[in-house]
Structures are given as C-alpha cells and as structure tokens.
Amino acid sequence: MGKHGVSILGATGSIGTQTLDVLRNFPRMRVRALTGHSNIKQLSESANEFKPETVCVPDAEARIRLRALLDYDCEIVTGDEGLLYCAAESGAATVVNALTGRVGLEPTFAAIQPGVTLALANKESLVTAGPLVTEAVKKAGAKLTLIDSEHSAIMQCIEGGARKNIEKIILTASGGAFRDWPRERIEKAAAAAALRHPTWNMGKKITLDSATMMNKGLEFIEAVYLYGVRPEQVEVLIHPQSIVHSMVQFADGSVMAQLSTADMRIPIQYALLGNTREPNDFPRLDFTGIGSLTFEKPDARRFPCLRIAREAVSRGGTYPAVMNMLNELAVQAYLEGELGFYDLSALIEKAFDSYTDRGLNSPGDIREAEDWAQEFFRKG
Ligand code: NDP
Ligand code: MG
User: Fold this and answer.
1) Among all ligands shown, which has an atom nearest to the Cα of 80?
2) Last residue of a domain, one of 146, 170, 194
3) Which end of the chain is more exposed for a tag (fewer CB within 10 A), N or C?
4) What share of the chain is helix, strand, coil (3-state, %, to 5)?
C-alpha cells in the first residue's frame, strides 16, 4: 500500500495540537507519527487518542516516561534521528512540520519525497533555505503547502490564477503586542508584555516574533521565495482586526482577499486537504459585529525588523539564514532578560555589515552561515 495518512512533527505545540483537532473531523486521515519534545504527558494523551505507529521523544529517559503513559503498543524513536525518521519514513502522505525554529530545517528536507505533501508551518526552514526547498520539491515531485494564515490566504487568492499576473502581494499583520506603543515604552517593556498577543494564541517564539514584527519579515521572505516576486512587489499593512489574512493585487487592478475568523484550524484544514475545501463547523465571521476593517502602514522606526528582512532577502544567499539564526538567539536572550528589545535588530544589522556571503548552494552553506552567526552572537 502506498503512503497514506498524516505525520505531525511538533505535535505538542500550538499548531500541532490544532492540527490534531482538525483531524478529529477527518478520521479517514490516519495519524502515522507524532513527535514531541518537553511535553511528554500531552504527547502521550494525543498518542493514546490517535494511536500512531511511531512516536518520537528527545531521549531514552523520555522514552521510558512515555512508554509508561501509553495504553497501546507503538514504536518509540528518539532524538534528531527519530525526528528525521518521522519526517521521511513514517509512511505518511502528508507531513506537517510544526516544529519551531531552526530545528525544523533538516526535517523539512527529509520530508520532501515523491508524492508527499509537506504542510509547512515551520517558516524558519523556508526563510533560511527557500530556493533549495522549492527546488527539492520540484525535483522530487513533492507538493509544498503552507500552514500560516497569510500564506494560506495568498495561496487561496491565486488559486487557479496565473502567477505571472501578480502585481503585488499585500501581507497583513496584526501588529503584535506593541502595535500602538511608543518606542520609548516598548524599549522598557518586560518580556511578559511582548508575549500577550492581541489576536492569536501561539507558541512563545512566534508571539515574540510578532511583537518585533520579525514574524512579518519572515513571511515577507517566504513570499519572495514562494511566488517568484521581487521584494518591491510585497507590501506589509497593519490590519489590527486579523480578519483579512492577506491579499493579492493582479495586473488588471483587481485585488483578491481571503477573510475568515482568526482561527488557525481553517488554514490547517486547507493544507491537510491539499489546498481544497470541505465543510466544517468552526465559528463563522459576523460582518455586522466586526464593524470596520482598517489598514495602515507599519512604523519602521518602532519596528526595524521589517526593513532588516527586506535587506536580507535583497542581499540574498545566506543572509536570511544569518538573520534567522541571530533572531532565534536574540529572542531567547530577550525572554531571559539578557537583551533589550531593540538590541535584537541592532545586532542583526551589525552582523550584516561584517558578514561575507559565499552563496547558497547546499544545506552545508546554511550550517556554515549559522555557525558564523552563533560565533558573532557569542562575541557580542
Ligand atoms: P510551539 O512552541 O507551540 O510548538 C513547537 C513544537 O516543536 C512543540 O511540539 C515542541 O515540543 C517542539 N519542539 C520545540 N523544540 C524542539 C526541539 N529542539 N526538538 C524537537 N521538537 C521541538 O510553536 P507553534 O506551534 O506556535 O509554531 C510552530 C511553527 O509554526 C513556528 O515555525 C511558527 O512560526 C509557525 N506558525 C505558528 C502559528 C501559530 O498560530 N502558532 C501560525 C503560523 C505559523 P514540546 O512542546 O513538547 O516541547
Ligand atoms: Mg502568519
């Protein structure tokens, strides 16, 4: 029998658990493998419910803990090797990569196989390796779809339409926790405030990336890689209501937009169904309740990460990988109170000035760029 069903990398996270929730409505899609990291209890509960043949945990100790919590027999694999096994060899027709951060890169490459659909939530892997990923997908005869409200919106807007007719992509942004705060107040804010997102409930890193607007920067880079547009053809607009998830303006002046409630299960379902639609009973939009939809330009002085992402993708090569690695390290340092809010963007700009790119031809080039970024970060 050929590949069938779904494997979820990062099944215990925000996207992972919402993916499982969507799958409750589609019992025909069997869960083949689940992976978790620190949350073994949650992983065991999901495994007991969905009964995947393979479950991945970080190490032997976690394996013992998980085994004791499972009420059925399955294979428990461990570590990076186990993660790659779940990405490449679980037998799933659809692999959801819902890992957070750089750790998602190798599993992204491993999942790209003939006939397999890679449903990518892990934006960091596309940002660092975009051209290599899209090339590998084409070569393998795999399918790439994104689990992200903005990219799901864009894919829906260009559904059936010719890409050559795209004039502009308008990426909408909620504006994050500090949308209306003055720079002086953002500078002094505690990390806890940055983690209070106004419209979405997500993992820590992406919530912090939303506060700095680096999240929109990452999505900006993805847009350039995915839809073959130039950086000047991508515009970011602040849309506080998070109802219009992005728009595409075509060569004839028409604009297509995708609207829905701020519910990640909608883009997740669309991706799991290979970019097609089926009914569900998720809450619907209430237009009279919404009142108005507003759009404004982001303030570059308060949110320099947007400019940095534009710069990274314009410079090309491994600059986005350097940016991504430094962002990841800086986010961690900010959450631990060791780095100020604006130190993050200043650090990446300083790094760009001293980095020499040698081109992006293989995953090895990314590792070298990341090693350089780690060393740069360590030296401060
Ligand atoms: P979470 O932090 O909620 O979940 C991350 C998942 O990855 C968890 O299952 C976690 O396991 C696992 N994980 C973390 N570190 C490691 C590691 N070192 N090795 C193996 N597994 C690990 O993140 P989100 O679900 O919010 O985000 C996932 C990705 O999706 C990100 O790239 C994000 O940008 C993107 N995304 C998220 C959206 C959202 O609404 N949340 C929207 C659009 C995109 P454990 O919890 O067990 O430690
Ligand atoms: Mg998004």
Assistant:
1) 1
2) 146
3) N
4) 50, 15, 35
Each residue's pLDDT tens digit, 271-305: 999 999 999 999 999 999 999 999 999 999 999 99
Q: Which residue among 9, 18, 78, 100 is best mutated to probe the pocket of ligand 1, counting the most ligand atoms within 8 A of its Cβ?
A: 100
Note the pTM of the prediction, 2 decimals. 0.98
Tally of structural domains, the chain? 2
Domain check: are 181 and 201 in the same one? yes
Ligand 1 and 12: CB distance under 6 A: yes
Residues 130 and 176 in one domain: no
How many whole angstroms separate alpha carbon 323 and alpha carbon 217? 10
- The answer on 217 and 138 residing in a single domain is no
Cα(73) to centroid(ligand 1), Å: 26
Final residue in a domain of this structure, among 95, 115, 146: 146
Residues 6+ apart with CB under 8 A from 138: none
In a domain, 280, yes or no: no
Q: Residue 107 has which token pair?
A: 């599993």
CB of 15 closer than 6 angstroms to any ligand 1 atom:
yes
Q: What is the CATH number of the domain that holds 30?
A: 3.40.50.720
Residues 54 and 140 grouped into a single domain = yes
Distance, CA 66 to ligand 1 centroid (Å)?
Answer: 20
Q: What is the mean pLDDT of each run of 10 residues along the chain (380 residues)?
A: 94 98 98 98 98 98 98 98 98 98 97 98 98 98 98 92 87 96 95 90 95 98 96 98 97 96 98 97 95 96 97 98 98 95 97 97 97 96
Q: Are 138 and 175 in the same domain?
A: no
- Which element (helix H / strand E) includes 244? strand 244-250
Could you list the residue range(s) of the whole structural domain that residue 155 is in?
A: 151-261+298-315
**Other beta carbons less than 10 A from residue 190's beta carbon:** 8
